[in-house]
Design goal:
By secondary structure, this protein is of the alpha+beta class. The chain folds into two domains: 89 residues; 222 residues, Bira Bifunctional Protein, Domain 2 (BirA Bifunctional Protein, domain 2, 2-Layer Sandwich). Helix content is 44%, strand content 21%. The strands form two sheets. It has a seven-stranded mixed beta sheet with strand order 1-4-5-9-8-7-6, with helices on both faces. Strands 2-3 form a two-stranded antiparallel ribbon. Strand 6 and strand 7 form a beta hairpin. Helix 1 runs antiparallel to helix 2 and helix 1 runs parallel beside helix 4. The protein is rod-shaped and about 135 Å long. The model has no long low-confidence stretch (mean pLDDT 95). Bound molecules: 3,4-dihydroxyphenylalanine. 3,4-dihydroxyphenylalanine binds next to strand 8 and strand 9.
């Protein structure tokens, strides 16, 4: 009778351990069937009150039952722990080949990147970067550059005038006034580059923007010749468009240079007009109090948008102006 009862406890324990779905359920089953208050534990404690005969026969039965229950518990524990571990491995699986979740923290506009690139190129050769104001006096923007009062560029069709008109102030139409500012405030030798924003009364279309950027270069030193200009432009063009690009100068006219030229680059199989240049007109040097018996100089000016459009095959100015990140991201962050 007793034996049957003990065998029932063992099979109850074995069934309960087997039925446990996880380690938590197993813990409940363990307390019930192998804990201090489980039937075998209570029976085991009752052995003390038995006679030596009873004790030896019943003690063995209880001992065997305990062993059987402990081994069922150990099996169930091992099985459920293994199940837990493999579930964790699955849940926490990391696919290291997935693309990283990148966050875009912003970057510089491609025009700014290009301005910096141009400045770096010239700074590396000892030039300094000069800036001038975007609102400029008409005298610096035009007269000092030998652009006469009746020049067509000086009409409302082309230039933004600042009110009141008597102020004589304009939004600079070119970066060339920075040449004048530099020559008025420093002595030769002068080697400067001046990238900046410029303004003209143009409608925004595929090739024009009322707000755009130029980069101006000015060198004034002893015995400067057009050969120096040509060499500087050639190197500059190669830095911008690639080592195999070639340049040519075409005669042209600017009031502030004499002689004047357009500089073209041969890029992607065709000649492309890049910018203007020339030897600084002696009248301009004299306007700035520079002795033309001792010094001569050259100057050049390029559109930054134009340079970017040519180099990267951008066909619509809107792309540059609108600042859509789907466009700008292609140029990197430029930091
Ligand atoms: N400022 C001229 C323009 O806006 C470009 C230019 C031409 C600048 C010749 C120069 C130069 O310094 O020498 O069209």
């Amino acid at each position: 009778m007793r034996e049957k009862e003990v065998a029932g406890w063992v099979s109850d324990a074995q069934n309960a351990f087997k039925a446990a779905q996880d380690l938590d359920q197993l813990k409940v089953a363990r307390l019930a069937h192998a804990g201090d208050k489980s039937p075998v534990a209570l029976a085991s404690r009752g052995l003390g009150a038995m006679t030596p005969d009873e004790k030896s026969s019943f003690g063995k039965i209880i001992g065997d039952a305990k062993t059987a229950i402990a081994s069922a518990l150990a099996n169930a524990t091992a099985t459920l722990e293994a199940a837990r571990d493999s579930k964790i491995l699955l849940d926490e699986i990391v696919d290291v080949t997935l693309p990283a979740n990148r966050s875009h923290k912003g970057g510089l506009h491609p025009i700014t990147i290009m301005k910096n690139e141009i400045s770096d190129f010239f700074v590396n050769q000892g030039y300094s970067v000069q800036e001038g104001p975007e609102m400029e006096s008409g005298w610096l923007n035009f007269d000092a550059l030998n652009i006469p009062g009746d020049h067509p560029a000086r009409t409302m069709q082309d230039t933004f005038f600042i009110e009141p008109l008597e102020s004589g102030m304009v939004l600079r139409t070119q970066t060339s006034p920075v040449q004048i500012r530099t020559m008025l405030t420093s002595e030769p030798p002068i080697y400067i580059i001046s990238p900046g924003r410029t303004f003209r009364a143009d409608e925004l279309d595929a090739t024009h923007s009322p707000v755009f950027h130029q980069v101006e270069g000015l060198v004034v030193d002893r015995a400067i010749t057009m050969a120096h200009l040509k060499g500087v432009l050639e190197n500059f063009a190669q830095a911008m468009f690639g080592a195999d690009v070639i340049t040519r100068l075409r005669p042209s006219f600017f009031p502030f240079t004499e002689p004047s030229a357009e500089v073209d680059v041969f890029f992607n199989g065709q000649w492309i007009e890049w910018g203007g240049c020339g030897m600084v007109n002696p009248k301009v040097l004299q306007n700035c109090g520079i002795d033309t018996q001792i010094y001569s100089g050259f100057a050049f000016g390029m559109g930054v948008e134009r340079t970017l459009m040519v180099r990267h095959g951008v066909t619509d100015m809107h792309e540059i102006v609108e600042g859509d990140v789907r466009f700008t991201r292609q140029f990197g962050i430029g930091l």
